[in-house]
Design a protein that fits this description.
The complex is a heteropentamer of chains A (about 300), B (about 230), C (about 240), D (about 400) and E (about 300). Chain A is an all-alpha fold and about 300 residues long. Chain A has 15 helices and two strands. Chain C has nine helices and ten strands. The chains are: A mainly alpha (about 300), B alpha/beta (about 230), C alpha/beta (about 240), D alpha/beta (about 400), E mainly alpha (about 300). The complex binds adenosine-5'-triphosphate (2 copies), leucine and magnesium ion (2 copies). Chain C: It holds the Pfam family ABC_tran.
Chain lengths: ~300, ~230, ~240, ~400, ~300
């Protein structure tokens, strides 16, 4: 069982790595976009596992993007370094902010993170000198000079890294800490869980991921622009993907990102007008008929089958 | 008054109640059994919170199965759920009043009923303006019982009402239940405190593993060896 | 030797004084019964000691350390464990995982160790299906999980808040055995219960709380004869 | 014969992208009806950018690798275009772009991209062209006096870019240089939040404008701001001598509003140009006949121009060979439905910039009349802006 | 004694009035504009507070239903020549019906599966509604002109618009109506009960399905009122309401879940705050910071106060 599982994973990885060899640049760029949203989606889900609904994804994504661009444009660092800096800055900011706002819960945490993301945007829009202000900022050295295959491999690496982190979180004591926090904080702390520490830890880790993805995205195209770098769709789509795929898991967001990412692209091609309506319909249908998401449904079915087999 | 015939209830594919029949007339009926036997499930089926797989539940000759919980409750069946189901950020008084608000027969007897409930549990009057969610465990239990009494039911279903009550109150509660019964209210009482429960009920059913184990009068149960050993601790 | 000492502890909720200037000690290794009318402040006291609530006034000393201002998780690490009156199972974890939480964070165990010790606890306490999820679990098993999870933290003192309420006689007897076993491992136990047969059977000493203050203290056989305890709490026929 | 493939990327959900795609299709159909080019038919493949940068970039990739188009056309928002530029640079196909006004795009394209043709004026060019316009108007009509300029700009990228270019123009004007030298004695810029982005309360800004008492009040925002701003100006009693709007499009039935009369606007095109340009008139009629709706934004004639410009180049080159076609396109002079002749010339950075200015129009009797350039004039300007009484 | 407790109970309200008076002396226009816009935020936020705060339905399509209502008003105005304010009546019922239908078809099925599924569902609905409007009416703004919408008056030398005072009137009217409904009617009480414990509500005889249905329907319907007053002053385009979704969520968080009067107070505080910043030359771009800054500050302070209890 274990061997087949790891075999499947290895095959999938190789297939993913070889994708550029077999497909057109178009699919690679679609794949890059899917991976971008996949990582955002996984990172959002990782935070959700603590019971905290974060609406700050787009904020750290944008922050990372600006850091990357500014580092490259004004300090002349290599774009790869810019990516790391993007992650670090997002992590640092999230550490400072997290210490304050991780005392909030539920809707209050969600709205505060969203408000902070908006604050980032307004501040950046008004710091014309550094950030280019409302009209954005460009760099002339893009990531790998816009060699999309290399960008794809980098993105794949980041995604695999994120998946690994997420899985590590699912298999170590972190899992028990955050799942117990989500279920009942009073119980968790009464049994020795340092709630605050774990919340901050997860918040920072996920923010770093979002920052890294943001700077990768920005440096890939070589520009940042307040309205698009902080756009709500870096918040809403990852959430939708995680929920469609199935929350509280790594594979759920992965599946969700693939399903929604491909279907949005495909729908657009077969129906130029109104494709977003059908995109919405897909989402509605998934919620109504697969309330636990696609992965949840698969689990239910296979679990059911397994049990049936056992009963026989 | 209430008739349950050949009831089967399952959660998913796990059968919890198997071919269970029982009836309640103008009397108090006890339901006893170990944890997980299916008492709560049975009660939830009667008030429509759980849909049975098959069988029949008749209240005054009418089937309850097509109705939703709120309609069943409005027919004069009131319940003290096992876990209280209070409204945590309403005051004690509001919780009590709401027990009567949605039942026509009870609506204009609110003050009278309040006095009655306060009579049994004076602490509820003392704490009328405290939020229900901040009451102690036992106080919340009192409130749950009190709320069900507000409804002026014709059939009162109590799922372990005495859990967590201080000894003096347990005695008092069962005395009051006897009194309520004598006023013509039918009663189903699920209890682990069998000794006290037997003082109230006329007949009792012992349910084990979702099926009927023993059915007999209170007196006989008192002397049943099995009941003595497992439930009375003799 | 006292393991826990409360010094003039008071807890106020708004205008309501739930615990009023209580001073008491719990001796190493004893089984103490904490009884008293509903709303007397028993659960609140447990919450204050375990750090779920913070005292309004007073001091709490555990094992020679002033823990008055320590957060709950640190108190747990020092060896204070408790169950919850209204049981609070972690619904998104399985039975054994619930218990592992205690071992992992309360006792600093590694993942594998904690699983092993959790399984052992399951066996000791009689939880037959450790890998079961909690959506279809009985009240008895939930109570067992509460105890096992607390025990997994390897406490020096364990507070049991009405773990026997709602159990029938068979089950209660089983539970009493479990408590005795636990105490056999050297854990100090403070048990809150309204079922007097339990208190009578296993406690060595009881403290009666009423309206936030201590009403009486001593062996149950003595306390239960006291007039004030009878009127406030026990009633005539107990 | 295999068709010549043209790939277009526009935001179909937006009226600009929608209508420009339709106008392109109209042009393609016309050319095909006339026998195509080089004996081959034209084929238009449109991909929606959804106004999202990564989608816009992927669309270019798709056109290049899946559809294997010969040319890229289209465009609207600068933010989307910025993401497309690196992709375009990789393929270096001949690109005729009709959107994006931000100079950042020009910088990103760089001076070496000889395959890149840009039709829409850059933001700084627009600013300069208005200066020229006002100067000429002030000369032509002695009673028009322009000295104090107030710019209300939406706080996003689009509006702020205008403000920045006005600041540059002002510093030039202060030294007696640049297009605004004669008409910009003083300048003030105040931002507002566009209704399109959740704003819509302009009164704080209008109060400042009223206190400033400008000769020329210009707002740079979106179509959604047009009427509410007039209403609020009326509410506070603010009637500058010229009330000028510079959105990329105007609301439906704007002209029917009593508040619209004598509102001046910057635009590349207006239906009244039909009166002075036969191409415009032809385009207008053909578009209405085909789609049963009126062109509502200048992106419609711009899209039409986009295709015809390319077609003229191919016709002149007689080949699709890149180098020759580029040379031919450099020479094309196309009398576009915008009203003027399109001819490439260098701008600040790139070699091939098409239009360099917009027009000054005025709402009169529910129609947009051209008041500048004077040679395309369709009506006399109403000056000063009439008071709000009785509207 | 009575009056003191009255003062304390409405402490926030009096504080608010005091602040407005101070601002009115300092910057009269900021006070008026802030009051007007803030009331509009509140008017749109109130129904969300009802659905999210009281019964716990997460609705991300809130603003899109507002847009839809605005288009309905537009249709009545252009096709039947109905005055926007009059069309509030039919639009109210239309939206109520629509809310009921949408609830029955979709939301009722996710009531049990929690906030996150509601979030995803309504995100999908929002997308459908928004794109449908875009297909039908295009992204091009439309408008309905009524003469009175830019009327103004001068008091004590300050000239200000009178139309937007309707926002204030309607916000207060809706708040009072909702409060009366919640406090004085049995259905209103049931709403609170359902929000706190749906199972418990059933047990006391409350038809929880109906309560959800009614509350959702009424909250969408109230958006029709907002739509009616907004139309004379707003450009009509598909995403006109979208921005209000976020603002409304912010208000609910700032006021605290279930606190309806708090919505009005919060809305006006944020509106006045914004207006003050906008009136300072050169700083208009920072007004969002004030909005979010005040929001975050209030949420943080409230959470600290709660913890120290
Ligand atoms: N929602 C559920 N899903 C699956 N199984 C359930 C569910 N609720 C209860 N069960 C199972 O049904 C059986 C009967 O439970 P029930 O609560 O009716 O017993 P009970 O007699 O009331 O016990 P107790 O004395 O503990 O209240 C138990 O085995 C329990 O695990
Ligand atoms: N969060 C709170 N806010 C306000 N009052 C509270 C709060 N928690 C407890 N109380 C009050 O404090 C008093 C003590 O409650 P506590 O739960 O400690 O009682 P208890 O002795 O455990 O009672 P029981 O036997 O019923 O469980 C009660 O009157 C209760 O209403
Ligand atoms: C005039 C339009 C082309 C404006 C467009 N939004 C841009 O950013 O360039
Ligand atoms: Mg039960
Ligand atoms: Mg207690």
């Amino acid at each position: 069982m274990k061997i087949t599982k790891s075999l499947v994973i290895i095959i999938l990885l190789i297939a993913a790595a070889l994708l550029p060899v077999v497909t057109e640049a178009y699919f690679i760029s679609v794949a890059i976009t899917i991976l971008t949203f996949m990582t955002l989606s996984i990172s959002w889900d990782m935070m959700l596992r603590t019971g905290q609904l974060s609406f700050g994804t787009a904020g750290f994504f944008g922050l990372g993007g600006y850091t990357g661009i500014i580092a490259v444009a004004d300090f002349g660092v290599d774009p790869l370094v810019g990516i790391i800096l993007g992650g670090l800055l997002a992590g640092g900011v999230s550490l400072l902010l997290g210490m304050a706002i991780l005392r909030l819960r539920g809707l209050y945490f969600a709205i505060t993170t969203m408000a902070l993301a908006s604050v980032f945007m307004v501040v950046i829009r008004n710091l014309n000198k550094l950030t280019g202000g409302p009209s954005g900022k460009i760099v002339y050295t893009t990531l790998f000079n816009y060699d999309s295959v290399k960008v794809y491999w980098l993105m794949l690496g980041i995604t695999v890294g994120t998946i690994v982190v997420s899985e590590v979180f699912q298999r170590t004591r972190v899992h028990f800490a955050i799942d117990s926090i989500r279920a009942d904080e009073t119980v968790a702390k009464s049994h020795g869980v340092n709630i605050y520490k774990y919340l901050i830890f997860v918040f920072v880790v996920t923010s770093i991921i979002q920052g890294v993805i943001g700077s990768t995205y920005a440096l890939q195209y070589g520009f940042v622009y307040p309205e698009s770098s902080f756009s709500a769709h870096y918040l809403l789509l990852p959430i939708a993907m995680a929920l469609v795929g199935g929350i509280y898991s790594t594979i759920g967001p992965v599946l969700g990102a693939i399903i929604l990412g491909l279907s949005s692209e495909y729908l657009k091609l077969i129906m130029p007008y109104g494709h977003l309506i059908f995109y919405g319909v897909i989402i509605v249908v998934v919620v109504l008929f697969l309330p636990n998401g696609v992965y949840g449904a698969i689990k239910d079915v296979t679990g059911f089958r397994k049990r049936r087999l056992e009963e026989r | 008054m209430l008739e349950v015939k050949n009831l089967f209830v399952s959660y998913g594919r796990i059968q919890v109640i198997t071919d269970f029949s029982f009836n309640v007339g103008a009397e108090a009926v006890g339901l006893f059994g170990p944890n997980g036997a299916g008492k709560t499930t049975l009660i939830n089926s009667i008030i429509g919170l759980v849909k049975p797989r098959s069988g029949e539940i008749l209240f005054e000759g009418e089937s309850l199965l097509p109705y939703e919980t709120h309609s069943i409750v409005r027919k004069g069946i009131s319940v003290v759920p096992q876990d209280g189901e209070l409204f945590p950020i309403m005051t004690v008084l509001e919780n009590l009043k709401i027990g009567a608000s949605y039942i026509k027969e009870a609506r204009d007897k609110v003050n009278e009923r309040l006095e009655f409930v306060f009579g049994i549990f004076p602490v509820l009057k003392e704490r009328a303006y405290q939020l229900a969610g901040t009451m102690s465990g036992g106080q919340q239990r009192m409130l749950a019982v009190g709320r069900s009494l507000m409804a002026v039911p014709r059939l009162l279903i109590l799922d372990e009402p005495s859990v967590g009550l201080q000894p003096t109150l347990v005695t008092e509660l069962f005395e009051k239940l006897s009194m309520i019964k004598s006023e013509g209210v039918s009663m189903i009482l699920s209890e682990q405190n069998v000794r006290q429960g037997l003082k109230v009920i006329d007949r009792g059913y012992v349910i084990e593993n979702g099926t009927l184990a023993i059915e007999s009068t209170a007196d006989d149960l008192m002397h049943n060896e099995h009941v003595k050993r497992s439930y009375l601790g003799l | 030797m006292s393991i826990l000492k409360l010094d003039k502890v008071t807890k106020r909720f708004g205008g309501l004084v739930a615990v009023d200037n209580v001073s008491m000690e719990i001796q190493q290794g004893e089984i103490l019964g904490l009884i008293g009318p509903n709303g007397a402040g028993k659960t609140t006291l447990t919450n204050l000691i375990s750090g779920v609530h913070m005292v309004s006034e007073g001091k709490i000393i555990f094992d020679g350390i002033d823990i008055t201002f320590l957060p709950a998780h640190k108190r747990c690490n020092l060896g204070i464990a408790r169950t919850f009156q209204i049981a609070r199972p972690l619904k998104n974890l399985t039975v054994v995982e619930n218990i592992m939480v205690g071992g992992l964070f309360g006792n600093g165990e590694k993942l594998k160790e904690s699983k092993k010790s959790a399984l052992r606890l399951c066996e000791t306490i009689g939880l037959e299906e450790p890998d079961q999820t909690l959506d279809k679990i009985t009240v008895l098993d939930i109570k067992k999980i509460e105890i096992a999870r607390a025990m997994a933290t390897k406490p020096k003192i364990l507070f049991l808040d009405e773990v026997m309420s709602g159990l029938n006689m068979d089950e209660t007897r089983e539970m009493i055995d479990t408590v005795r076993k636990i105490r056999g491992t050297g854990v100090t136990i403070c048990i809150i219960e309204h079922v007097m047969s339990v208190i009578r059977e296993i406690t060595e000493r009881v403290i009666v709380l009423d309206r936030g203050t201590i009403l009486a203290e001593g062996p149950y056989s003595e306390v239960s004869q006291q007039h004030n305890v009878i009127t406030a709490y026990l009633g005539e026929d107990a | 014969a295999t068709p010549i493939k043209i790939g277009a990327v526009v935001p179909l959900g937006d009226i600009t992208g929608d209508q420009s795609a339709k106008a392109m299709k109209l042009a393609i159909d016309e050319i095909n009806a006339a026998g195509g080019l080089l004996g081959r038919p034209l084929e238009l493949i449109v991909v929606d950018s959804e106004l999202k940068p990564e989608k816009g970039a992927a669309a270019i990739e798709k056109l290049a690798t899946v559809d294997k188009v010969d040319f890229f056309v289209g465009g609207m928002a600068s933010s989307v275009h910025l993401a497309q530029i690196p992709v375009m640079k990789r393929y270096q196909k001949i690109t005729i772009w009709s959107g994006a006004a931000s100079y950042l795009c020009e910088n990103a394209v760089g001076p070496d991209a000889d395959w890149y043709f840009h039709l829409h004026p850059w933001d700084y060019q627009q600013g300069a062209s208005y200066g020229l316009g006002w100067t000429e108007l002030a000369e032509a009509y002695p009673d028009i006096e322009i000295e104090k300029i107030f710019l209300a700009y939406e706080e996003g990228g689009f509006g702020s870019a205008s403000h920045e270019s006005y600041l540059v123009l002002q510093s030039q004007a202060n030294q007696g240089e640049g297009a605004w030298a004669a008409v910009m004695g003083d300048y003030m810029g105040v931002s507002f939040k566009s209704a399109a982005l959740g704003g819509g309360d302009y009164r704080a800004m209008l109060q400042q404008a009223k206190a400033y008492d400008p000769d020329l009040f210009v707002w740079a925002g979106y179509d959604a701001d047009a009427l509410p701003m007039l209403q609020q100006a009326k509410e506070i009693g603010f009637a500058p001598k010229f009330f000028v709007g510079a959105p990329p499009g105007w609301p439906a039935h704007f002209g029917d509003s009593p508040l619209a009369e004598a509102v001046t606007l910057y635009g590349m095109w207006a239906p009244t140009i039909n009166k002075v340009s036969p191409t415009a008139e032809h385009f207008w009629n053909a578009y209405i006949e085909k789609y049963n709706e009126e062109p509502a934004t200048y992106f419609a004639p711009l899209g039409y121009t986009n295709i015809y410009f390319l077609a003229e180049g191919i016709k002149a080159a007689g080949t699709l060979d890149k180098a020759e076609l580029i040379k031919a396109l450099e020479e094309v002079e196309y009398a576009s439905p915008i009203g003027e002749v399109l001819k490439m010339s260098p701008s600040n950075v790139i070699k091939h910039q098409g239009f360099t200015g917009q027009k000054i129009l005025q709402w009169q009797g529910g129609e947009q009349q051209v008041i500048w350039p004077l040679n395309l004039k369709t009506a006399e300007p109403i000056y000063p802006f009439p008071s709000w009484e009785g509207r | 004694m009575e009056s003191i407790s009255f003062l304390r109970k409405h402490r926030n309200l009096f504080l608010l009035i005091a602040v407005i008076i101070v601002v009115a002396i300092w910057k009269p226009h900021a006070a008026i504009y802030g009051l007007q816009r803030g009331s509009l935020y509140s008017l749109v936020g109130l129904p969300l507070s009802l659905t999210l705060g009281v019964v716990g339905i997460m609705n991300l399509a809130h603003g899109d239903f507002l847009s839809l209502g605005i288009y309905f008003v537009y249709l009545f105005a252009t096709n039947l020549g109905m005055d926007p304010l009059v069309s509030i009546i039919p639009v109210f019922f239309l939206l109520f019906g629509l809310g009921v239908v949408i609830y029955k078809l979709t939301i009722t099925r996710v009531m049990k599966s929690g906030h996150l599924n509601q979030l995803l569902l309504t995100f999908g609905i929002s997308m459908i509604v928004l794109e449908a409007m875009n297909l039908i009416w295009t992204s091009r703004p439309r408008s309905v002109y009524v003469e009175y919408s830019s009327s103004s008056t001068t008091i004590a030398g300050v000239r200000f618009g009178t139309y937007e005072l309707l926002y204030v009137v309607f916000a207060f009217a809706v708040l009072i109506a909702l409060q009366l409904f919640l406090k004085k009617t049995r259905l209103g009480q049931a709403t609170f009960a359902v929000g706190q414990n749906p199972q418990g509500a059933k047990i006391v005889g409350i038809n929880t399905g109906f309560v959800y249905l009614f509350v959702f329907g009424i909250s969408i319907a109230i958006l029709g009122i907002a739509a009616g007053v907004m139309v004379p002053r707003f450009a009509i385009f598909p995403s006109v309401g979208s921005a209000f979704t976020m603002k409304s969520f912010c208000l609910v968080a700032m006021a605290g879940l279930g606190n309806l009067p708090g919505i009005l107070v919060s809305g006006i505080v944020l509106g006045v705050g914004e207006a003050i910043v906008q009136s300072i030359p050169g700083y208009a771009g920072w007004s969002d910071i004030v909005f979010f800054g005040v929001l975050i500050a209030v949420i943080m302070i409230r959470s600290l106060r709660r913890q120290s209890l």
